[in-house]
Amino acid sequence: MEQQQFKIIIADQSHQDFARIICDEMESSAKARGTGIAKRSPEYIQEKMREGKAVIAFTEDGIWAGFCYIETWSHGEYVANSGLIVSPPFRKSGLAKMIKKKIFGLSRTMYPEAKIFGLTTGLAVMKINSELGYEPVTYSELTQDENFWAGCKSCVNYEILMSKERKNCMCTAMLYDPKDHYEPEETTQDFKKHSKLYERFMRIKQWKLLAPFLKHHVEDNGVPVSKEGNGGGQRKSLFHRFHMFFNF
Ligand SMILES: CC(C)(COP(=O)(O)OP(=O)(O)OC[C@H]1O[C@@H](n2cnc3c(N)ncnc32)[C@H](O)[C@@H]1OP(=O)(O)O)[C@@H](O)C(=O)NCCC(=O)NCCS
């Protein structure tokens, strides 16, 4: 079968009519996955387009295929590439990877000093982020901007986030710090090497977080638990950082 070609461009006001279909797809995809999302309105998406803070993808025939946008927090100290969505017929053909690459480049150009971060429950997004040089971090390394965390209120897991005092939840946090980061080759290799374990860690973490809500007794699962904090000192290995998620 012929490989589908895509046009991936920085969105502008001429794309505003696509905001509704983008929001609808975000919502139905979240429902299908059984996960929550920070809800976005078409007006918010349109604003991002007008500001040149979004990337949109089309097929060669002009059919909408994907989207992602930039948000800034803590007065521009942090940037998040949010709302990544690929239209179902075009999934698994590398489009999300291309969109993320484009929005990452745009973020680096617009906010060269900013730390770029993301929260995700999906292994696909973790893989893509790893290939861009993101590394896993604890929630304490993310923006503490109240407006960012307020966005989680519409997520089905908000109660879990609050019960953990915003230190942990179902999502994995990943961050690219322009001043202190691994090379993309290193983070890519690390993900390749440990992806099966990371997947298992995520499942265990999510199960542990859900357990109190399901009123189950949580047994020791034998996964190494780090009692170290995440403060200063030497950089920890990427693999070690995943262990830190069990420090809750
Ligand atoms: C997640 C999503 C954006 C991925 O889009 P996509 O275009 O299918 O992703 P890509 O084809 O670029 O895949 C990137 C990598 O992830 C892998 N991948 C894709 N979907 C996957 C899945 N469901 N589970 C595990 N790996 C997956 C691909 O195999 C690819 O790896 P490779 O480089 O080894 O081939 C898309 O499924 C989507 O829009 N989902 C609903 C919204 C969503 O979950 N957004 C993310 C919010 S954080």
UniProtKB/TrEMBL annotation:
InterPro entries from the entry?
A: Acyl_CoA_acyltransferase
Q: Which SUPFAM superfamilies match?
A: Acyl-CoA N-acyltransferases (Nat)
Q: Its domain of life?
A: Bacteria
Name the record gives this protein: GNAT family N-acetyltransferase
| Naturally occurring in which organism (per UniProt) | Puia dinghuensis
